[in-house]
Amino acid sequence: MSRRRISAFVAAIVLGTAAPVLLPASGASAAACSSYPSWVAGKSYVTGNVVRYTDGKAYIAEHDNPGYDPIISTWYWEPYACDNGPTNPSGFVVSEAQFNQMFPGRNSFYTYSGLKAAMSAYPAFANTGSDTVKRQEAAAFLANVNHETGGLVHIVEQNTANYPHYCDWGQPYGCPAGQSAYYGRGPIQLSWNFNYKAAGDALGIDLLNNPWLVQNDAAVAWKTGLWYWNTQTGPGSMTSHNAMVNSAGFGQTIRSINGSVECDGKNPAQVQSRVDSYQRFVQILGTTAGNNLYC
Protein backbone atom coordinates (compact mmCIF):
# COMPACT_ATOMS: atom_id res chain seq x y z
CA MET A 1 0.00 0.00 0.00
CA SER A 2 1.38 3.38 -0.94
CA ARG A 3 1.13 6.10 1.65
CA ARG A 4 1.32 9.84 2.12
CA ARG A 5 2.21 11.91 5.16
CA ILE A 6 -0.54 14.09 6.64
CA SER A 7 1.08 17.20 8.03
CA ALA A 8 0.56 20.87 8.74
CA PHE A 9 0.17 21.66 5.09
CA VAL A 10 -3.12 19.72 4.83
CA ALA A 11 -4.87 23.09 4.73
CA ALA A 12 -3.06 23.83 1.50
CA ILE A 13 -4.20 20.50 0.12
CA VAL A 14 -7.80 21.29 0.97
CA LEU A 15 -7.48 24.58 -0.86
CA GLY A 16 -6.18 22.78 -3.92
CA THR A 17 -2.62 24.07 -3.69
CA ALA A 18 -0.98 20.80 -2.74
CA ALA A 19 -1.01 17.27 -4.05
CA PRO A 20 -3.73 15.02 -2.55
CA VAL A 21 -2.98 12.79 0.40
CA LEU A 22 -2.23 9.37 -1.09
CA LEU A 23 -1.24 6.48 1.10
CA PRO A 24 2.32 4.47 0.49
CA ALA A 25 -18.92 0.49 -30.42
CA SER A 26 -22.10 -0.76 -31.88
CA GLY A 27 -24.83 0.93 -33.96
CA ALA A 28 -27.79 2.61 -32.29
CA SER A 29 -31.16 0.90 -32.21
CA ALA A 30 -34.49 2.67 -32.27
CA ALA A 31 -35.55 0.98 -29.03
CA ALA A 32 -32.41 1.94 -27.13
CA CYS A 33 -32.60 5.53 -28.35
CA SER A 34 -36.25 6.06 -27.50
CA SER A 35 -35.46 7.87 -24.25
CA TYR A 36 -33.84 10.79 -26.05
CA PRO A 37 -35.95 13.72 -27.29
CA SER A 38 -36.77 13.91 -30.97
CA TRP A 39 -34.69 16.30 -33.04
CA VAL A 40 -36.55 19.51 -33.89
CA ALA A 41 -35.46 21.61 -36.87
CA GLY A 42 -34.70 25.20 -35.87
CA LYS A 43 -34.42 24.42 -32.14
CA SER A 44 -31.16 25.53 -30.53
CA TYR A 45 -28.87 22.77 -29.25
CA VAL A 46 -25.68 22.94 -27.21
CA THR A 47 -22.64 20.68 -27.26
CA GLY A 48 -23.45 17.35 -25.63
CA ASN A 49 -27.18 17.32 -26.38
CA VAL A 50 -28.38 13.94 -27.66
CA VAL A 51 -31.40 13.72 -29.96
CA ARG A 52 -33.33 10.99 -31.75
CA TYR A 53 -33.52 11.68 -35.48
CA THR A 54 -36.49 10.86 -37.72
CA ASP A 55 -34.98 7.45 -38.58
CA GLY A 56 -34.89 6.48 -34.89
CA LYS A 57 -31.11 6.78 -34.61
CA ALA A 58 -29.40 9.08 -32.13
CA TYR A 59 -26.93 11.91 -32.65
CA ILE A 60 -24.86 13.96 -30.22
CA ALA A 61 -24.14 17.67 -30.77
CA GLU A 62 -20.41 18.20 -31.21
CA HIS A 63 -20.88 21.97 -31.48
CA ASP A 64 -23.62 24.41 -30.52
CA ASN A 65 -26.04 24.87 -33.39
CA PRO A 66 -29.46 26.40 -34.15
CA GLY A 67 -31.13 23.11 -35.04
CA TYR A 68 -29.16 21.96 -38.06
CA ASP A 69 -30.05 18.60 -39.61
CA PRO A 70 -27.82 15.86 -38.10
CA ILE A 71 -27.63 14.01 -41.42
CA ILE A 72 -26.59 17.06 -43.41
CA SER A 73 -24.55 19.09 -40.91
CA THR A 74 -22.07 16.43 -39.90
CA TRP A 75 -19.60 18.93 -38.39
CA TYR A 76 -22.22 19.80 -35.79
CA TRP A 77 -23.50 16.29 -35.11
CA GLU A 78 -21.94 12.86 -34.54
CA PRO A 79 -23.75 9.49 -34.61
CA TYR A 80 -24.45 8.30 -31.08
CA ALA A 81 -24.71 4.59 -30.23
CA CYS A 82 -27.23 4.56 -27.41
CA ASP A 83 -26.00 1.36 -25.78
CA ASN A 84 -22.31 2.16 -25.90
CA GLY A 85 -22.06 5.92 -26.15
CA PRO A 86 -20.81 7.65 -29.32
CA THR A 87 -19.56 5.32 -32.01
CA ASN A 88 -15.83 5.12 -31.35
CA PRO A 89 -13.59 2.88 -33.49
CA SER A 90 -10.77 3.18 -30.94
CA GLY A 91 -12.48 0.72 -28.59
CA PHE A 92 -12.33 3.12 -25.61
CA VAL A 93 -15.74 4.05 -24.21
CA VAL A 94 -14.75 7.73 -24.26
CA SER A 95 -14.39 9.24 -27.71
CA GLU A 96 -11.92 12.04 -28.36
CA ALA A 97 -14.83 14.42 -28.91
CA GLN A 98 -16.26 13.50 -25.50
CA PHE A 99 -12.84 13.87 -23.90
CA ASN A 100 -12.56 17.37 -25.33
CA GLN A 101 -16.09 18.14 -24.13
CA MET A 102 -15.17 17.06 -20.60
CA PHE A 103 -12.01 19.19 -20.54
CA PRO A 104 -12.60 22.26 -22.73
CA GLY A 105 -9.80 24.24 -21.07
CA ARG A 106 -7.28 21.45 -20.64
CA ASN A 107 -3.55 21.88 -20.93
CA SER A 108 -2.36 20.57 -24.30
CA PHE A 109 0.02 18.27 -22.41
CA TYR A 110 -2.88 16.02 -21.40
CA THR A 111 -3.59 14.44 -24.76
CA TYR A 112 -6.27 11.90 -25.59
CA SER A 113 -3.65 9.90 -27.46
CA GLY A 114 -1.48 9.87 -24.33
CA LEU A 115 -4.34 8.44 -22.32
CA LYS A 116 -5.04 5.79 -24.95
CA ALA A 117 -1.36 4.82 -25.01
CA ALA A 118 -1.27 4.55 -21.22
CA MET A 119 -4.25 2.22 -21.12
CA SER A 120 -2.16 -0.59 -22.58
CA ALA A 121 -0.49 -0.87 -19.16
CA TYR A 122 -3.83 -1.63 -17.47
CA PRO A 123 -6.12 -3.28 -20.05
CA ALA A 124 -8.85 -4.00 -17.47
CA PHE A 125 -9.43 -0.27 -16.98
CA ALA A 126 -12.80 0.80 -18.46
CA ASN A 127 -12.90 -2.61 -20.12
CA THR A 128 -14.43 -4.78 -17.39
CA GLY A 129 -18.08 -5.73 -16.93
CA SER A 130 -21.07 -4.37 -18.77
CA ASP A 131 -20.97 -1.39 -21.09
CA THR A 132 -22.58 0.67 -18.33
CA VAL A 133 -19.84 -0.29 -15.86
CA LYS A 134 -17.14 0.49 -18.41
CA ARG A 135 -18.53 3.96 -18.98
CA GLN A 136 -19.01 4.55 -15.26
CA GLU A 137 -15.41 3.61 -14.50
CA ALA A 138 -14.06 5.87 -17.23
CA ALA A 139 -16.24 8.73 -15.96
CA ALA A 140 -15.16 8.10 -12.36
CA PHE A 141 -11.47 8.14 -13.20
CA LEU A 142 -11.76 11.28 -15.30
CA ALA A 143 -13.92 13.02 -12.69
CA ASN A 144 -11.30 12.49 -10.01
CA VAL A 145 -8.60 13.57 -12.43
CA ASN A 146 -10.63 16.67 -13.24
CA HIS A 147 -10.72 17.57 -9.55
CA GLU A 148 -7.04 16.89 -8.92
CA THR A 149 -5.79 18.98 -11.84
CA GLY A 150 -8.34 21.78 -12.06
CA GLY A 151 -9.82 20.42 -15.27
CA LEU A 152 -6.57 18.92 -16.63
CA VAL A 153 -4.95 22.33 -16.40
CA HIS A 154 -2.19 21.70 -13.85
CA ILE A 155 0.63 19.28 -14.64
CA VAL A 156 2.53 19.87 -11.41
CA GLU A 157 1.60 20.82 -7.87
CA GLN A 158 1.11 24.57 -7.67
CA ASN A 159 2.42 25.27 -4.16
CA THR A 160 6.19 24.97 -4.55
CA ALA A 161 6.66 25.48 -0.81
CA ASN A 162 5.44 21.93 -0.31
CA TYR A 163 8.03 20.35 -2.60
CA PRO A 164 10.69 19.58 0.07
CA HIS A 165 8.14 17.69 2.19
CA TYR A 166 7.82 14.75 -0.20
CA CYS A 167 11.16 13.05 0.50
CA ASP A 168 11.12 10.22 3.03
CA TRP A 169 14.78 9.63 3.87
CA GLY A 170 13.75 6.62 5.90
CA GLN A 171 13.37 4.63 2.70
CA PRO A 172 16.46 2.51 1.88
CA TYR A 173 16.73 4.03 -1.60
CA GLY A 174 16.48 7.61 -0.33
CA CYS A 175 15.78 10.47 -2.70
CA PRO A 176 18.37 10.16 -5.48
CA ALA A 177 16.75 12.86 -7.61
CA GLY A 178 16.98 15.40 -4.78
CA GLN A 179 15.11 16.49 -1.66
CA SER A 180 12.55 18.54 -3.60
CA ALA A 181 12.10 16.33 -6.68
CA TYR A 182 9.07 14.27 -5.69
CA TYR A 183 6.30 16.87 -5.74
CA GLY A 184 2.85 16.18 -7.17
CA ARG A 185 2.74 15.52 -10.91
CA GLY A 186 0.30 14.18 -13.43
CA PRO A 187 -3.45 13.49 -13.46
CA ILE A 188 -3.60 12.15 -9.87
CA GLN A 189 -0.67 14.27 -8.68
CA LEU A 190 1.75 11.46 -7.85
CA SER A 191 4.02 12.51 -4.97
CA TRP A 192 6.55 11.17 -2.42
CA ASN A 193 9.68 9.22 -3.31
CA PHE A 194 8.13 5.89 -2.29
CA ASN A 195 5.20 6.39 -4.66
CA TYR A 196 7.53 7.27 -7.54
CA LYS A 197 9.54 4.14 -6.71
CA ALA A 198 6.48 1.89 -6.55
CA ALA A 199 4.87 3.33 -9.69
CA GLY A 200 8.13 3.15 -11.62
CA ASP A 201 8.75 -0.45 -10.58
CA ALA A 202 5.25 -1.44 -11.65
CA LEU A 203 5.50 0.33 -15.00
CA GLY A 204 9.10 -0.58 -15.79
CA ILE A 205 10.17 3.08 -15.76
CA ASP A 206 12.86 4.56 -13.50
CA LEU A 207 10.76 7.27 -11.91
CA LEU A 208 12.77 7.31 -8.70
CA ASN A 209 15.79 8.72 -10.52
CA ASN A 210 13.84 10.59 -13.16
CA PRO A 211 10.53 11.80 -11.68
CA TRP A 212 10.43 14.58 -14.29
CA LEU A 213 9.23 12.05 -16.85
CA VAL A 214 5.78 12.37 -15.29
CA GLN A 215 5.58 16.04 -16.26
CA ASN A 216 7.33 15.69 -19.62
CA ASP A 217 5.74 12.58 -21.17
CA ALA A 218 1.94 12.51 -21.44
CA ALA A 219 1.74 8.70 -21.68
CA VAL A 220 3.91 8.30 -18.57
CA ALA A 221 1.78 10.84 -16.70
CA TRP A 222 -1.41 9.00 -17.57
CA LYS A 223 0.19 5.66 -16.67
CA THR A 224 0.97 6.87 -13.15
CA GLY A 225 -2.66 7.89 -12.75
CA LEU A 226 -3.85 4.51 -13.96
CA TRP A 227 -1.28 2.76 -11.76
CA TYR A 228 -2.76 4.38 -8.68
CA TRP A 229 -6.34 3.85 -9.86
CA ASN A 230 -5.88 0.16 -10.61
CA THR A 231 -3.45 -0.99 -7.92
CA GLN A 232 -3.52 1.26 -4.84
CA THR A 233 -6.09 1.35 -2.05
CA GLY A 234 -4.70 4.50 -0.43
CA PRO A 235 -6.67 5.35 2.73
CA GLY A 236 -9.57 3.22 1.47
CA SER A 237 -10.19 -0.52 1.58
CA MET A 238 -10.16 -1.23 -2.16
CA THR A 239 -8.69 0.09 -5.38
CA SER A 240 -10.74 2.60 -7.30
CA HIS A 241 -10.97 0.13 -10.19
CA ASN A 242 -12.47 -2.51 -7.92
CA ALA A 243 -14.83 0.02 -6.40
CA MET A 244 -16.35 0.71 -9.81
CA VAL A 245 -16.42 -2.80 -11.27
CA ASN A 246 -17.78 -4.37 -8.08
CA SER A 247 -20.54 -1.78 -7.60
CA ALA A 248 -19.14 -0.26 -4.40
CA GLY A 249 -19.80 3.15 -5.93
CA PHE A 250 -18.05 6.37 -6.85
CA GLY A 251 -17.74 7.39 -3.20
CA GLN A 252 -15.23 4.63 -2.61
CA THR A 253 -12.96 6.02 -5.33
CA ILE A 254 -12.87 9.31 -3.43
CA ARG A 255 -11.96 7.44 -0.26
CA SER A 256 -9.12 5.59 -2.00
CA ILE A 257 -7.68 8.78 -3.45
CA ASN A 258 -8.10 11.36 -0.70
CA GLY A 259 -10.43 9.91 1.89
CA SER A 260 -8.29 10.80 4.89
CA VAL A 261 -8.79 14.49 4.13
CA GLU A 262 -12.20 14.60 2.45
CA CYS A 263 -14.44 11.71 3.58
CA ASP A 264 -16.61 11.19 6.66
CA GLY A 265 -17.70 14.81 6.67
CA LYS A 266 -14.17 16.26 6.77
CA ASN A 267 -14.51 18.26 3.57
CA PRO A 268 -17.95 17.89 1.98
CA ALA A 269 -17.32 20.68 -0.55
CA GLN A 270 -14.38 18.80 -2.06
CA VAL A 271 -16.40 15.59 -2.19
CA GLN A 272 -19.29 17.42 -3.84
CA SER A 273 -16.92 18.83 -6.45
CA ARG A 274 -15.86 15.31 -7.42
CA VAL A 275 -19.45 14.05 -7.46
CA ASP A 276 -20.57 16.96 -9.63
CA SER A 277 -17.88 16.16 -12.18
CA TYR A 278 -18.78 12.48 -12.16
CA GLN A 279 -22.47 13.17 -12.73
CA ARG A 280 -21.62 15.51 -15.59
CA PHE A 281 -19.27 12.99 -17.19
CA VAL A 282 -21.65 10.02 -17.03
CA GLN A 283 -24.24 12.22 -18.70
CA ILE A 284 -21.78 12.97 -21.50
CA LEU A 285 -21.16 9.24 -21.85
CA GLY A 286 -24.88 8.50 -21.95
CA THR A 287 -25.13 6.42 -18.79
CA THR A 288 -26.24 6.63 -15.17
CA ALA A 289 -24.16 7.41 -12.09
CA GLY A 290 -25.15 4.38 -10.01
CA ASN A 291 -25.41 4.31 -6.22
CA ASN A 292 -23.16 5.31 -3.30
CA LEU A 293 -21.78 8.52 -4.75
CA TYR A 294 -20.52 9.94 -1.46
CA CYS A 295 -17.95 8.82 1.09
UniProtKB/TrEMBL annotation:
Entry protein name: Chitinase
Q: What GO annotations for molecular function exist for this entry?
A: carbohydrate binding; chitinase activity
Query: Which residue positions are annotated as catalytic?
Result: 148
Per the UniProt entry, the signal peptide is 1-30
InterPro entries from the UniProt entry = CBM5/12, Glyco_hydro_19, Glyco_hydro_19_cat, Lysozyme-like_dom_sf
- Which organism does this sequence originate in? Streptomyces aurantiacus
Q: One Pfam match, by short name?
A: Glyco_hydro_19
| GO terms for cellular component | extracellular region
Record's keyword annotation contains Transcription regulation: no
